[in-house]
């Protein structure tokens, strides 16, 4: 009786997620522009606080 090596499945090709793709980077930069230029003129202080926190959390995903 001969032992055969178990066959491992072929490695799955992983595709980058939306935040790691080029499209995601440009979407993030576009969101930054909106937050930095448009948002301060149309938002009250509570929304500005939310925007600042969103910006802080979005920066690592962008670049």
Account of the 3D structure:
The chain has a domain at 32-62. 62% of the residues lie in helices and 0% in strands. The chain is mainly α and 63 residues long. The radius of gyration is 22 Å and the shape is elongated. The chain is built from two helices and no strands. The longest helix is centred in the middle third of the chain and has 21 residues, at 22-42.
Show unreliable segments: none
Question: How would a textbook summarize the main sheet?
Answer: none
Oligomerization status of the protein chains: single chain
Write down the secondary-structure element order.
Answer: HH
Distance between the termini: 56 Å
Blueprint of the fold:
Layout: H1 22-42, H2 45-62
A few lines on this structure:
With about 60 residues, this protein is mainly alpha-helical. About 60% of the residues lie in helices and about 0% in strands.
Give descriptors for this structure.
0% strand; 2 helices; single chain; 63 residues; mainly alpha
């Amino acid at each position: 009786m001969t032992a055969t090596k178990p066959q491992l499945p072929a490695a799955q090709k992983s595709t980058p997620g939306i935040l790691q793709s080029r499209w995601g980077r440009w979407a993030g930069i576009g969101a930054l522009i909106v937050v930095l230029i448009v948002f301060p003129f149309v938002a009250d202080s509570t929304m500005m606080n939310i925007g600042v926190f969103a910006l802080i959390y979005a920066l690592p995903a962008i670049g």
